[in-house]
Amino acid sequence: DYLKTINIFTKSRALRIAYRSNFIDVMYRITNKLIWWWLSYHNIGSWITTPSTFSKKILGNKGISKEKILVVPNPIDIGKDDNIKKKKKKIPLILHVGRLSPEKRVDILIKALKYVKSDFKCIITSDGFIRNYLQALAIKERVSRKIKFTGIVSKEKLNEYYNEADIFVSPAVYDTFNNCVAEALIRNTPVIIDEKSGATDFVKHGINGLIVSNSNPKEYAVQIDQLLKYNGFKFSSTEIKNYTDIDNIVAKFEKIYVKKNTENRKVVLDIVKYLFSGVFFYFLLVLGEVGIILHNAIKK
Question: Average pLDDT, stretch 205-230?
């Protein structure tokens, strides 16, 4: 669907050629295998950090040694406002924050809004290459009058949206952490996320949000209606603030570095190995870009 959309809304002839020849799909499959092979090369390291147990599981399933993977969450800093009190509004606000790209699955949210029975308005921030598609989809699903696409906004404006929002919805899958979900919880905004998200580490179903187990827009609509009508979650943001506090996270990294470097002092050798692996990874990326350029040149 997205490749078709790119063909419709993008003026780039190269993308249209790539779509028709299925070249992008082939390059993706090849690059994906090469990248996972490159990541397994990281087993030479003493340890690997990742921001969630969800991403740790994925890395472990792809050949990375689970014993070497340590979970350290991302730090979040969106201001020091405490005890945010939500003001009751006649029309509740649904918020989505995040780049507009396929893996964020904003299309699921837009399709779900068609089935929401409660009155609402929705704000979708940020930007991305499928924005035109999403705006067209909103028109197609007849919910465009209730959705506002803001584009990129300032940090101050984003904080205003977090404070005003009644619920936050992120259908994204395979996010290693999802900072935006954590930011919403810090602002005492209940969230709806997919079960295939790193945010499942700190989103507790029925306590500070709801976790959807399938990608059906109607299921998301049911959960949205439930929160809009009930929204009885009385959770404290203190836990998520402590979990993502930058001082706490720096302390975790310091503890890891001190302990691991004491266990294994071959630091110089490790640095050389990682430099080599990094150079090799970028070589793969450049190789893919060159392949696309040559392919398009031949087609012309």
Answer: 92
Range with lowest mean pLDDT among 14-23, 52-61, 261-270: 14-23
Confirm whether 292 is domain-assigned.
yes
Supply the pTM of this predicted model: 0.77
Gap between the Cα atoms of 135 and 148, Å rounded: 9
Q: Which tens digit of pLDDT belongs to each residue from 257-281?
A: 887 666 555 555 665 666 666 666 6
Residue 45 has pLDDT above 60, yes or no: yes
The Cα–Cα gap between 169 and 192 comes to: 5
Q: Are residues 205 and 136 in the same domain?
A: yes
Q: Is 122 found in the same domain as 227? A: yes
Residue 204 lies in a domain: yes
Both tokens of residue 189? Answer: 């905004």
Q: Does 275 lie in the same domain as 237?
A: no
Q: HSE (CB half, 13 Å, CA atoms) of 173?
A: 13
The C-alpha angle 128, 76, 207, rounded to 5 degrees, equals 95
Rg for the chain, CA atoms, rounded: 22
Same domain, 174 and 66: no
CATH number at residue 136: 3.40.50.2000
Which residues, at least 6 apart from 122, have a Cβ–Cβ distance to it below 8 Å?
93, 94, 95, 96, 109, 113, 143, 146, 147, 148
